[in-house]
Structure prediction request, 195 residues.
Amino acid sequence: MVSLSGIASKEVAGVDEVGRGPLAGPVVAAAVVLPNEFCLPGLTDSKKISARTRERLNQEIRAIAVDYFIAEASVAEIDELNILQASLLAMHRAVLGLRQTPKHTLVDGNRLPSLPGPATAVVGGDLTEASISAASIIAKVYRDSMMSDYAKQYPGYGLEKHKGYPTRQHLDALLTLGVTPIHRRTFGPVRRLLD
Prediction:
């Protein structure tokens, strides 16, 4: 992967978010700054690799990264702002959490959050930009772990399996068990139950 920015890797932050589609839990974003030289076999979009590979890469990314930060926007913020604005807010927080402001920020997608310094939106960036792929992976591993923890707090919903996405198991559980505090009340299936 060659960075679009043309700036050394260690001066570029890659940013991605996970968790736009679920009915439950926060949206999580990560910002990652990689060193100029690194070896991360299998690095790609977090959705394209197995959970085991993500776990391995998560540890390797955290070990070699020049800097990284994970941030989130809460369920309340998602319901107040809408999922797009909450996703942009989480990405904004992730970049602000870095120890130094990057010279350039690469953001997966076609929208840019408010950021300090120059930034580029890269559609499909989690497949073409190493720093965005790295951000995608550590954000997903972090959020998946969070949802597994929520599964212990709210048993019966299958959160440890579907991570809050609207699977048949999740929709059936909502009908029988009801809405929890971690459910997004503005999302259709949840809103309809509350109505």
